[in-house]
Design brief:
By secondary structure, the chain is an all-alpha fold. It is built from two helices and no strands.
Length: 72
């Protein structure tokens, strides 16, 4: 298990350095386009998580609002 963590960390470091070189060598418009694409790619798993957790979030929000209204 420890070996897997070390391997993942090393892969991350290599990818990080690779993207630094690519970002420095590329023109700014392609860097911005890639950055926007990666942010868009992060939206999908977050939206799936929000849809799955929506009932729990709604329940906790109700409890929070009741607690706030009781303090007044």
């Amino acid at each position: 298990m420890e070996y897997l963590n070390i391997l993942i960390q090393e892969i991350y470091k290599i990818l990080f350095l690779l993207f630094i070189v690519i970002g420095a060598a590329g023109d700014m418009s392609s860097v911005w386009a890639f950055s926007d694409a990666m942010i868009l790619a992060l939206v999908f798993p977050n939206m799936i998580g929000l849809f799955i957790l929506f009932p729990k979030v709604k329940e906790e929000l109700s409890r929070y609002l009741v607690a706030i209204n009781n303090k007044k």
